[in-house]
Specification:
It is built from 3 helices and 5 strands, in the order E-E-H-E-H-H-E-E. The two termini are 16 Å apart. A hairpin with a 2-residue loop joins strand 4 and strand 5. The strands form 2 sheets. It has a 3-stranded antiparallel beta sheet. The protein has a two-stranded antiparallel ribbon with strand order 1-2. It is α+β, with helices and mostly antiparallel strands and 124 residues long.
């Protein structure tokens, strides 16, 4: 769960000014974790933009993630993709392969606003 004051939505914006808001706590946390990894990758601070699904599970559900089926994360990814599609954004902005997930390479850039460094100190 998130500490008080955390964002309740994540936003995707395109260069034409279109915006789609992704709502739902687990979806927002997933996108935050993926965006954080993408920022690290873009800045040369990690070797890959892909995040292991096990690490995402811990970021989303804590220690009980190991007891949850893999389909739980797949459901969150599918819901994000559904909201992207309803906003006429490509669904594959969130990409999945066995055991890993990432924000796709078609993103021009990633910005994280409204989160303090202390709000999520342990990131995958």
């Amino acid at each position: 769960s998130l500490e008080g004051g955390a964002p309740r939505e994540a936003r995707f914006e395109d260069r034409c000014g279109r915006v789609v808001a992704i709502a739902g706590e687990s979806r927002v946390v997933l996108l935050y974790l993926l965006a954080h990894r993408r920022l690290l990758y873009d800045r040369g601070r990690c070797h890959s933009p892909w995040v292991e699904d096990a690490a995402l599970g811990v970021g989303l559900w804590g220690g009980r993630a190991a007891d949850l089926p893999a389909s739980r994360l797949n459901t969150v990814v599918a819901r994000v993709r559904e909201q992207l599609g309803r906003g006429d954004f490509p669904r594959d902005l969130v990409q999945k392969r066995p055991g890993e997930t990432r924000l796709g390479p078609d993103l021009a850039g990633v910005a994280i606003e409204g989160w303090s460094a202390s709000s999520m100190p342990a990131l995958p």
